[in-house]
Known about the structure:
Elements: H1 14-28, H2 36-64, H3 81-84, H4 89-114, H5 118-131, H6 140-164, H7 169-189, H8 194-199, H9 205-234, H10 249-261, H11 270-293
Helix pairs in contact: 1-2, 1-6, 1-7, 1-11, 2-4, 2-5, 2-6, 4-5, 5-6, 6-7, 6-9, 7-9, 7-11, 9-10, 10-11
Amino acid sequence: MPPIIGVFRPKFLTLPLVCIFAGYAVSLGHFTQASWLDLMLVIILGLTAHISVNAFNEYFDFKSGLDFTTKRTPFSGGSGTLVNAPHLANTAKTLAVAALVVTSVSGLLLVWRHGWQLLTLGLIGVAVIYTYTQYLNRSPWLCLIAPGIGFGLCMTLGAAWVLSGHLHPGAWIMATLMTLLVVNLLLLNQFPDVNADRAIGRRHFPIVFGLRTSARLFALLHTIAFLLVPVAVAGGYLSVGALLGLFAVFLLGPLLCGVLKRPEAVAHNTALLGLNVAFIHLLPLLTGLGVLFFRDASYVIMS
């Protein structure tokens, strides 16, 4: 595999697919027939958007010197590709821009097919992609919520909107679920990088508020995300099959216990970081599968 592929972070590209699946599941759960062209455009958009943000992150972290001081884990923001092959830095930047162009073109095609209202989500997504590493990392709150907005609001809600043709409560539920989960994905992955990030002027949540407070917020957000599923079922916004997602509790319990018990040890506990990734994938996957298999709920359409 060519070294430059490392800046794409291929192993991380499962996340946009999970987000799109969540939007797809809730759109079909609303008894609609999705267009294959729309589905392909949404998948291309999701993958290239994530490739773009990964490549920009690699480039800017290399230029700032962060990549040379980070104690790398399998879940670190940078792959180390440019540290080992610095001559590829400009190539990484070019690929980041190219992926962003493909994302934008795919988005504009969807806007052309479904209406200018989608443009709002697209502009927010593009802004998050380009500004996250360079600018948003200087604000603890913007840095905290930006990934969730990108993957939850823009990608999951956008997918459900395009594939079902309208916004309904089920789409908002899935988008909120993914927003909370992705916020926590980035939040916990920042624990090992606190010292290196602080040295280059970043001010994300664990740096500003500390690991203990960050661990409590992490536990709160995961708990809300988990409880959102039965609440949505009780309200009739998701079918009863969505309760399949509750089997993810077998990962949530040990995950929260491990993070809350010793927040300072998270940086050295790759198993705990991996458990977080597994939970963030499993909860929406099981919820979405349940929605697809049991389409018997009454949905309330937003006018």
